Amino acid sequence: MESLTIRERTTAPxxxxxxxxxxxxxxxxxxxxxxxxxxxKNKTYSYSSLDDxxxxxxxxxxSGLVRFxxxxxxxFNYLRTPYKLYWLVxxxxxxxxxxxxxxxxxxxLVKEY
Length: 113
Known about the structure:
The protein is about 0% helix and about 45% strand. It is mainly β. It has one domain (about 5-105): Immunoglobulin-like, CATH 2.60.40. The strands form three sheets. Strands 1, 5, 6, 9, 10 and 11 form a six-stranded mixed β-sheet that branches. Strands 2-8-7 form a three-stranded antiparallel β-sheet, with no helix packed on it. Strands 3-4 form a two-stranded antiparallel ribbon.
């Protein structure tokens, strides 16, 4: 997963590729995924593909492509940048591993004017 830059207050879907040592993680047999995110003010956000109205989903399992669709425009605020995030990949309902494993992904914002 790479760092990315987006416009603040976006609600457009954001696609990310989950990688392990530079190779796409095959999500074909995954139970579900969860995205955890924290802004610079230490507010945390958590979204699961099992939520009633999921904001995260697996788009292309074989290539490790996942999507975050921000549920409202208040999530990404320029004053709270950068946002750190990681994904939990659940191989069963309770067993998981994190991605990225060694450091958080980063989302930087461009100010809306």
